[in-house]
Every structure is written in structure tokens, then in C-alpha cells.
Amino acid sequence: MWWDVWANLPYVLQKQEEAAKASLSYLLEWISSHPDLVEAGWAAMKQALATGHRLYIEGALHGLGHWQFEESGTATVIIDEFLASHLELPPALREYAMRAREGDVQ
Hints:
Blueprint: H1 2-32, H2 35-50, H3 54-67, H4 72-85, H5 91-101
């Protein structure tokens, strides 16, 4: 019955989260082995940050936050340059950038 599904929901969600993390880890590892893709990714994230559009900026920060686990030096530099050149960011967006700088993105 439906209550059986709800009773097992925490287990199912945990397994989905583990699978998603494993997939992301594999994807980042594969991309890292292709330097041209990595450089294109950095360029795309820099361009998104430069657009001034909040959703593009959030997307780029999110991606950079994930890259903290593979290439933290480059991701941190890009985020720091963005923050230094955008002193008038809304507080919530600045906070998200700081969290992305630490790899704390969901």
C-alpha cells in the first residue's frame, strides 16, 4: 500500500542522492581528462557571470561550486574575480557566491 512507499522513502531518497553524487563525480572526472572541455567550461562560466542576468550568474556559481572538488584553485579565482568586480550584488547572491566558493551548493 501507499504507506509502504512512504515508510521506505528515506531509504529511496538516500539511494537516489548517492547515485547522483556518483554520476556527478564520474562526469567531472571524465571532463577533467579532456582539457579542451575544461577550458570551454571555464570560459562558459565566466561568460555567464558577465551577463548580469541573475539566473545565468546563479547557474555559473552553482557549476563553479561543484568544480571546487576537482579544480578548486581555478573555481575560487573565478568566483573571487566576480565578487571583486561586482560590489553591488544583492546580499543573497553574494552569500550564494561565498557558499559556492566553499563547494556548498545543492
